[in-house]
């Protein structure tokens, strides 16, 4: 049965559906030897040979779900053109091809979900999922009175207002720590929010995704998610 090409690629665990669309537009996808660049193109995953970046995909591979505690100094991508270390180097013993759901920048640490389930990745990264993500941030200085309330209500970033955030103090000092919970994940959102109020972020760590925490998971370590945890992430229990 024919399906949209980006959906097939995502389900095969190559990347998310959104990034699959970019690969199609860039001419990186062939179907039966023919380059496909038109979004909306369809293929039969059972009968057509689909190749992405020179590698044939396997539509029905084993699903893998990992929770990784990323240290500072790793890129949250499968590969890096600048040859910096990526989170893939931390997944010792994992043979299946997985990729990170969302990103943490090079200088940030904390939790990342790694999977080859394109449908779950697409859901978690969609605006509609409203999955809360909690961060601990160290600021360069104490925010001025009333500034945190602005962030909690939402500010304009890239021409669109951020969703309300929850912010609470953790350590009060000249360079304080705060806990920040968001239900969206825009590009460098936490850092950009605090820069907007004149308080650059010195350190950032993601400590929670939905109900998943970093408890018992040291930097650089990962674990497999349980079937029950996967069902909860998908909203089925």
Description:
This protein is an alpha+beta fold. It folds into three domains: 54 residues, RNA-binding S4 domain (Structural Genomics Hypothetical 15.5 Kd Protein In mrcA-pckA Intergenic Region, Chain A, Roll); 85 residues, Pseudouridine synthase I, catalytic domain, N-terminal subdomain (Alpha-Beta Plaits), CATH 3.30.70; 78 residues, Alpha-L RNA-binding motif (Alpha-Beta Plaits), CATH 3.30.70.1560. The protein is built from six helices and 17 strands. The strands form four sheets. Strands 7, 8, 9, 10, 13, 14, 15, 16 and 17 form a nine-stranded mixed beta sheet that branches. α1 packs across α2.
Explain briefly what this protein structure is.
This protein is of the alpha+beta class. It has helices at residues 5-11, 17-25, 118-125, 147-153, 189-196, 227-233; strands spanning 3-4, 29-31, 34-35, 42-43, 50-52, 55-56, 65-70, 99-101, 109-115, 133-139, 156-157, 160-161, 166-171, 177-182, 201-209, 212-213, 222-224.
Summarize the topology.
Blueprint: E1 3-4, H1 5-11, H2 17-25, E2 29-31, E3 34-35, E4 42-43, E5 50-52, E6 55-56, E7 65-70, E8 99-101, E9 109-115, H3 118-125, E10 133-139, H4 147-153, E11 156-157, E12 160-161, E13 166-171, E14 177-182, H5 189-196, E15 201-209, E16 212-213, E17 222-224, H6 227-233
Parallel strand pairs: 9-15
Antiparallel strand pairs: 1-4, 2-3, 2-5, 5-6, 7-9, 7-17, 8-9, 10-14, 10-15, 11-12, 13-14, 15-16
Helix pairs in contact: 1-2, 1-3
């Amino acid at each position: 049965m024919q399906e949209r090409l980006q959906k097939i690629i995502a389900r095969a665990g190559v990347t998310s559906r959104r990034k699959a669309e970019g690969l199609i537009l860039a001419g990186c996808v062939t179907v039966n030897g023919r380059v496909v660049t038109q979004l909306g193109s369809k293929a039969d995953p059972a009968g057509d040979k689909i190749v992405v970046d020179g590698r044939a995909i396997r539509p029905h591979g084993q699903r893998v779900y990992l929770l990784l505690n990323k240290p500072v100094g790793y890129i949250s991508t499968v590969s890096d053109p600048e040859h910096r270390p990526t989170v893939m180097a931390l997944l010792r013993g994992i043979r299946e091809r997985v990729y990170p759901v969302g990103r943490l920048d090079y200088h940030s640490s904390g939790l990342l979900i790694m999977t080859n389930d394109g449908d779950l990745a697409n859901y978690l990264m969609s605006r509609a999922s409203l999955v809360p993500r909690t961060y601990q941030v160290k600021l360069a200085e104490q925010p001025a009175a009333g500034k945190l309330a602005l962030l909690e209500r939402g500010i304009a970033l890239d021409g669109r207002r951020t969703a309300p955030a929850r912010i609470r103090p953790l350590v009060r000092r000249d360079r304080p720590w705060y806990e920040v919970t968001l239900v969206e994940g825009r590009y460098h959102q936490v850092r950009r929010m605090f820069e907007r109020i004149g308080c650059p972020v010195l350190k950032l760590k993601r400590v929670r995704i939905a109900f998943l925490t970093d408890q018992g998971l040291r930097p650089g370590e990962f674990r497999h998610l349980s079937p029950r945890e996967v069902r909860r992430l998908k909203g089925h229990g």
